[in-house]
Amino acid sequence: MSSATTPRPWRRRLLRGSLGVLALLGVLIGIAVVNTLTTRSQQIEVEAFEPLPVDDAEAIGRLSEAIRIPTISPEDPADFDPAPFISFHALLERSFPLVHAQLEREVVSDYSLMYRWQGADPNAAPIILTAHMDVVPVSDPAVWSHPPFAAEQAEGFLWGRGTMDDKGALMAILEAAEAMLAAGITPPRTVYLCFGHDEELQGTGTGAVEMAKLLHARGVEAEFVLDEGTGITVGLFPAVDQPVAVIGLSEKGSATIELVVELEGGHSSAPPDQTAVGILAAAVARVEAEQLPGSLDGPFRQTLATIGPEMHGPLKLVATNLWLFAPIMTRALLAAPTTASSVRTTTAVTVIEGGVKANVLPTRARALVNHRINAGDTVEGVVAHVRDAVDDPRVQVTLVVGNDVPRISDAEAPAFTTIARALREVNPEVLVAPGLFVAAADARHYVGVAEQVYRLSAFFITKQDVPRYHGIDERLALDQYAGMIQFYGRIMQAP
Ligand SMILES: [Zn+2]
Prior knowledge:
alpha/beta; Aminopeptidase; Alpha-Beta Plaits; 2 domains; six-stranded mixed β-sheet; four-stranded mixed β-sheet; 36% helix; 20% strand; binds zinc ion; peptidase activity; hydrolase; protease; EC 3.5.1.18
């Protein structure tokens, strides 16, 4: 007998094993394909609604006045100028007389504004709409296509600092409230409008903190808070033709970690093998090499699961079968920085300093590492990870400042449906999905006074619009403002 015609026993076992693996793979792919073919859209069906009567041109005029007041949160809080904020308050009083006659209004933390509008049903939990009146500074007005505080209209847009972030939302909320009052509509639920004046101070602001404290002290337990978030994205999701609005259930946390090396100095003619700069550089290289692992768990997985049924092509097969493809998907997303940030805690070495003179050994070298923390990771865990990566007792690793990921809100809650419905009533072509907001906003301060905290901006943005936030040529499409007003109107009228 020759081995060519009759397989040896071990070969037979291997063959049988391979066939088993192939069969299992076939079954898994079969299940995946069936899943993809039977998957259904999770989007809410909506009907036409009666829009609030608003003169859109006049509303744009009021927003333009708001943009022309430079309510700047300066880089250094000591440079704060209160005058524009006082003008801004006066503009609101002039622009929205019914709101100021019929709602209770309080000035909190000097320049923030909190309004209370008694709802028809005293037993229903109130809702909180927030926005901020301050804007980031403009470093070089000359590079803008239109001056940042002129509110010029051109090419179908209103140009200016604050149009997107966040005066557009603030003014749209008040337009909706004013229109409801004019039409004699009382909101079913009590509505709080909380407008902070220092959101852009990057964590040192007090406006939202103090308003949340006041609400807490008064026993307010709101059904939800809606704050700014990602806009309605156009073309940002692959394999989806429609715009996608991602309602932020939470936001990324953050941690800034300091690495310090301190050594005895001396003349550079007789140096040790490594100076403080060399030791620090090696530590920084290790921190960059040992990135935190990626994971699809958390709100981003919910985004994919909700958008999956709306996709086409091979990506639909992947997104509707994350039970099978999550590891492949995670690896694919980690391959590019823009998508990697949605599946892992990011690491960015942002500052390095050390040494004073070419012929003097440095006694001290210092680096700062900035992390944006993904759902599932913690500040404490990130510090431990960096300490492990550095793995050198000569490098001191210290947390400078850290915020954990705020509580993750529920995408199944009725309040989520309220917001999703309002958005689709106004923009029926838009897909709505839960997700994680990748920036930070005032929303996190309200976690203690509301069951759910959501983040969403109700205007459309493309990939090209993303750098306009805090950048140059911030602008809002004129034809979208009416939709924003109606969106907030639908929310305040929701049961
Ligand atoms: Zn903002």
